[in-house]
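#struct-queue
[09:14] JT: dropping the first one here, sequence first, then the C-alpha cells:
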Amino acid sequence: MQALGARKVMVNLVNFVDHLSNGTPLKTFANFKEFRKYTVKPNRKFGKEAAKQNGFIRVLLRQVG
C-alpha cells in the first residue's frame, strides 16, 4: 500500500475495499485511460448508494463514464 501515499494514484474502489478486507492484490494504473478501461467493466464499479453510506468511500468517488 506504499503507492497510496502518492498524490496521483489511481485505484479501483472495488479492488481497494477487497484489498483492505481480504488482502487481494491492489491494482494501480499508470494513466486515466487504463483506469477507465478497467473500471467500466461489470462488477468493477462501486455502487453509488453503498458509497454514500460510507463517508470515506463517498469522497473518493469520481465519474469515469
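[09:21] JT: and here's the second one, same format:
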Amino acid sequence: MNWLTKISFPAMNASIPELSPQEIYDTCTGPYYHGAPSAEIVSTIIEKGFAWEEGEARTQSTSHGYENREYGQTGCKTPVHHLGYGVYLTETKNIAKQFGYGSAKNLVEVYITKDARMPMINFGSPNTMMKWWKSMGYDCELAKVDRVAATKKLTESLASQYDAVLYKGKGIYRLLDGNQVCVYNTNILRRVNKKLSQPGERGAKVRRKVDNITGKILDRRPIDKDISELYNNREPEFLDIQWSKGGRDRNVYPSQVDFL
C-alpha cells in the first residue's frame, strides 16, 4: 500500500477530482483509504495523483510484497504483489493507518465511481488463488527467472479487463490485509470536498430554528404520504442530522431547520 514514483502505465499525473458529499453518495462507493509514509506524500498525492513502482518487494513481508518463493504447495512463485502492481487501498481505516505509521495525517481517503469495472474475489486457498493468477495471465515459467516481468504481465492483463480488483480477504480469520483494492486506472478515483455542498444536500449545514444550534445533514429519507397526512404535517421527508451539540437526530422535519 505504498505510494512510490516509478510507473510505466497507466497512472495519471493529475489531481484526483473532487465532488460534493451528495455527488459522492450518488455516483461512488467507499470510502477507501491509502496509508502513505508521510503527510508530505499525502499532499503530493492530492496535488498530482497516485503513482506506483514496478519492482521487487521492498521488504520481506506480505504487507509490502511477497517473498520470492513458492506459494504454498502450488509449485509456482508468487507475484510481487497480491493483485499485481497498482494503487492499493483498503476499506478499513485502521489497516491503512498501519501503513501510515499510525497517523491519521498520513491517510488519503478516496472513493471509486460506481461505473468502474471492479470485480470482487475472495480466495483463501493458495491453490485457488494461484489458479486465478494464472487465469489472469500470470506466467509461472517466467516467474522462475524474472518475477517482476511476470507480475507486470499479470498487471497488464488485469488492467486490460478491469479498472480495479477488490479482494475481500474474508474467512474464519481476516486474510492478508483484509478488504483491499488494487486500482489500475486512477481515473475512477474521487475525493470528497465538503465545501462543495449545496444547501439541503448531504453534507450541508443547517440551523435548528428553536435554539439556533447548527448541524450537518447525514441523510434524507422520504416520508410515506399516508403517514404524513395521518399526522397532518404533510412534510415530504425526514432529515438525519448530526448536531454540533446534542448528538444525532434521524427524524428532523425540513420545516424545523434553516438551510445554510
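[09:30] RK: nice, looked through the second one.
[09:31] RK: The chain has seven helices and 13 strands.
[09:31] JT: good to know. The chain has a mean pLDDT of 85.
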